[in-house]
Design brief:
Blueprint: E1 3-9, E2 18-21, E3 35-40, E4 43-55, E5 65-66, H1 74-86, H2 91-96, H3 107-110, E6 112-116, E7 131-132, H4 133-140, H5 144-152, E8 156-160, E9 174-175, H6 183-199, E10 203-207, H7 211-224, E11 230-233, H8 239-250, E12 256-259, E13 271-275
Parallel strand pairs: 9-13, 10-12, 10-13, 11-12
Antiparallel strand pairs: 1-2, 1-4, 3-4, 3-5, 6-7, 6-8
Length: 276
C-alpha cells in the first residue's frame, strides 16, 4: 500500500533530504513549504517540506505535527534555495535560520482561533473573523486564568485554527539604497514610496542591511506616518515577540514591515514593494 511521504530539509550539516511518513490527521494539512516537527536520533527537529512521494514504505518515522504557521510560499522557497547555493551550505541549515521560533509550550494557543460569542462592554469591536488565540493573549496581556474565565463565561469560544498554503505572487520591485548617496535623499524617496503604496492600498516591506540603518529609518517613518501600523522584525526580538509579530503579519495587521533579511520569510500577502 502506497503511503504519503514527505521529503524534508532538516537543520543538519548534511547535503541531503530525509523521508518521513505523513499519517492522519496531518495527511490533508501538510503542504510543500510546511514546517513540521519530526524525531531524528532522539532529537526533536523542525523540517521544511520540499516535496511529496508515494511510497510503499512502513519503516519510516511519521512526522509528529505541523508547526502552526502558514507554509512558505514558492517565492520564499526559491529564495532559501538561492541562499543555500550562495553560501554553499545545506539547505536545511540555512532555512532554519529563518524559521519562526519553535515555541512548543505555546503551540496549543497557536493552533486555536478565538471568536466573540456575545457582546459585552470592552469587546464590542472585536473582529468578526476572530483572532489567533496566542495573538489574542499577547495583544490584551491576559493571564491563563483571565482567559479561562472569558471562555468559561461564554464571552468567547475557540475553534481549530486554519492553515492554508499561500500562493502569493509578490509584485517585486527592488531598489538598492546605495544608488542614492545621501541619507536625506533616501528618506525623501522612502516617503514618496510609502505614500504611493498607501494610494494603492498595498503593504510595504522594507529590508535593511544592518540594525543601525533599520533603527534610523524606523524613527523617520514613525515620525512621518504616525497613523500607520508599523512593525519591526529582526533577530533582536525575544522569541515570544518574534512569534507575536509573525502572527500579526499573518493576520494582516500592519501597513509597513521593517526588518533585516529575516523579514523576507514572514507570511506576507498583498506585498507592494521591498527595498534592499
Amino acid at each position: 500500500m502506497n503511503m504519503k511521504v514527505v521529503s524534508l530539509s532538516l537543520p543538519l550539516p548534511l547535503f541531503r533530504e530525509f523521508s518521513y511518513l505523513v499519517l492522519p490527521p496531518w495527511d490533508e494539512k501538510v503542504k510543500v513549504g510546511s514546517l513540521v516537527e519530526v524525531e531524528f536520533h532522539k532529537r526533536r527537529l523542525i523540517g521544511l517540506v520540499r516535496s511529496f512521494e508515494e511510497k510503499d514504505e512502513h519503516e519510516l518515522k511519521p512526522i509528529i505535527r505541523i508547526v502552526p504557521v502558514f507554509p512558505w510560499t514558492k517565492t520564499q522557497m526559491a529564495l532559501i534555495e538561492r541562499l543555500a547555493q550562495i553560501y554553499f551550505s545545506p539547505l536545511g541549515e540555512v532555512a532554519s535560520l529563518f524559521f519562526p521560533p519553535p515555541l512548543r509550550s505555546l503551540w496549543s494557543l497557536l493552533e486555536r482561533r478565538i471568536f466573540l460569542v456575545r457582546e459585552v462592554p470592552g469587546w464590542s469591536d472585536f473582529p468578526s473573523r476572530g483572532m489567533n488565540l496566542f495573538l489574542f493573549r499577547e495583544a490584551f496581556g491576559l493571564t491563563a486564568s483571565s482567559l479561562h474565565k472569558l471562555l468559561r463565561d461564554g464571552v468567547f469560544r475557540t475553534e481549530e485554527e486554519w492553515w492554508q498554503p499561500q500562493d502569493v505572487v509578490f509584485r517585486e520591485q527592488i531598489f538598492r539604497f546605495w544608488r542614492i548617496a545621501l541619507k536625506e535623499d533616501r528618506m525623501k524617496w522612502l516617503k514618496v514610496m510609502v505614500e504611493n503604496a498607501s494610494a494603492e492600498n498595498k503593504k510595504v516591506l522594507l529590508v535593511f542591511p544592518d540594525f543601525q540603518s533599520l533603527d534610523t529609518f524606523e524613527i523617520f517613518l514613525r515620525g512621518e506616518f504616525p497613523g500607520k501600523q508599523i512593525i519591526k522584525y529582526d533577530g533582536r526580538l525575544s522569541a515570544t515577540r518574534r512569534m507575536a509579530t509573525y502572527r500579526l503579519v499573518e493576520e494582516n495587521q500592519y501597513d509597513i514591515i521593517l526588518g533585516t533579511r529575516l523579514a523576507l520569510f514572514l507570511p506576507i500577502p498583498d506585498l507592494y514593494l521591498y527595498v534592499l
